[in-house]
Design a protein that fits this description.
Layout (H helix, E strand, L loop, with lengths): L9 E4 L5 H17 L16 E5 L3 E5 L2 E5 L13 H10 L8 E7 L5 E4 L11 E7 L2 E5 L9 E5 L4 E4 L8 E6 L12 E7 L3
The structure holds 2-oxoglutaric acid (AKG) and fe (ii) ion.
Keywords: Dioxygenase, Iron, Metal-binding, Oxidoreductase
Organism: Roseivivax marinus
Protein name: Alkylated DNA repair protein
C-alpha cells in the first residue's frame, strides 16, 4: 500500500468516476480511437515508447524523430476527434476556473508499459492545470520535483481516479513505473488508459 501523496497542489480524487461512468467513457474513447487510432510513438532519439498514444481535441501531443510537440493533426494527417463530453465534464467539475482544455492525450499501457519521469512542459501557459483520468488496470504513479532528482513519492492510481496537477505541482517530474496488468476488469483485454487534459496554447 502507498499513502496518498503529501504534495502541494497535487489532488487525487479517488473513485471520482463510478463503474458505469467509466464504462461509458471507455465507449466514448473507443469511438474517438476509430477516428484517431493509437500509435506507438518514438522519442526524438528514435526509441519506441512502451505506451501507445492518441489524442482528442484541437491539439494532440506527438513525438517522432523531429521532436516532441503539439500537432493539430494525427500522424496520419487527419484532425483529432473532439474531446468527448464525458471527459470534458470531469475537467469542468474539478477545475471550473481553468481555461477550456485543448488536448486530451490518450495513453494506453499494455503489459510491461511504463512512462519515465518527465515534466509536462510543451504547453504555453503553466498557470493552467493538467487533469488526469485513469481507467482500467492500476498504475504506480511517481511524483518527483521540479528539478531533476531528489526524493519522490508514489501512489497507485486506480480505475476511476482523477488527479489534478496545478500550481506548484504543475512542473514537477512524474511518471508511471509499472501497471498491475489484469488488475481491473474494465477493459476486456486488460491494460490501463490514462487521459490527460491540457490547455496547450
Ligand atoms: O499515465 C499517467 O498517469 C501519467 C501520464 C503522463 O504523465 C503524461 O501523459 O504526460
Ligand atoms: Fe506527464
Amino acid at each position: 500500500m502507498t499513502a496518498p501523496l503529501s504534495i502541494r497542489d497535487f489532488s487525487l480524487f479517488h473513485g471520482f468516476l463510478d463503474r458505469s461512468a467509466q464504462e461509458s467513457m471507455v465507449a466514448d474513447l473507443r469511438a474517438a480511437l476509430e477516428v484517431a487510432p493509437l500509435v506507438q510513438p518514438v522519442t526524438p532519439r528514435g526509441r519506441p515508447m512502451s505506451v501507445r498514444m492518441s489524442a482528442a481535441g484541437r491539439f494532440g501531443w506527438i513525438t517522432d524523430r523531429k521532436g516532441y510537440r503539439y500537432s493539430e493533426t494525427h500522424p496520419d494527417g487527419q484532425p483529432w476527434p473532439p474531446i468527448p463530453d464525458s471527459v470534458r465534464a470531469v475537467w469542468d467539475a474539478v477545475v471550473p476556473d481553468a481555461r477550456p482544455p485543448e488536448c486530451c492525450l490518450i495513453n494506453w499501457y499494455g503489459e510491461g508499459a511504463r512512462m519515465g519521469l518527465h515534466q509536462d512542459r510543451d504547453e504555453a501557459d503553466f498557470d493552467q492545470p493538467v487533469v488526469s483520468i485513469s481507467l482500467g488496470d492500476d498504475g504506480l504513479f511517481r511524483m518527483g520535483n521540479v528539478e531533476r532528482g531528489g526524493k519522490t513519492e508514489s501512489v497507485w492510481l486506480r480505475s476511476g481516479d482523477v488527479v489534478v496537477m496545478g500550481g506548484a505541482a504543475r512542473l514537477r517530474h512524474h511518471g508511471v513505473d509499472r501497471i498491475r496488468f489484469g488488475s481491473s476488469t474494465l477493459l476486456p483485454k486488460g491494460g490501463r488508459i490514462n487521459l490527460t487534459l491540457r490547455v496547450v496554447s
